[in-house]
Structure prediction request, 131 residues.
Amino acid sequence: MKDKVNITEKSPLTRENFLQLIEENRQQKTELLYLRQEMEQIKRMIYGSKSERFVGQDNGQLPIEFEDLPGEEQPEVQKEQVSYTRNKPGTKKGHARLPLPDSLPRETQVIEPEFIPPGSKEDRLCGIGIP
Prediction:
């Protein structure tokens, strides 16, 4: 930056001082614009969305093809055939709960509704526990 020009009441503003101030103002505006753009770019790098996609850059370099290079030859892989017998699991048995023993007494209870609303079809209504 250029030296700052001090304008006081004793020194009048000359044309040279005015042009110098205009040039300094233009340089400061340019620097401010550059710094703002740089700050925006840094913010995008820090807070912007991130992606791991590959963006190829063409730098004028040719790719290296490793397949055609002389060098280590791959040893021939020996193959071995393996066979085995596998036992398939049986059918699924359902629940882990055991059936109730036959020695337990079994009772069938039918619960009839106490009130049947008028106009309802009685054939639709049946007791609880009746199939």
About this structure: The chain has a mean pLDDT of 78.
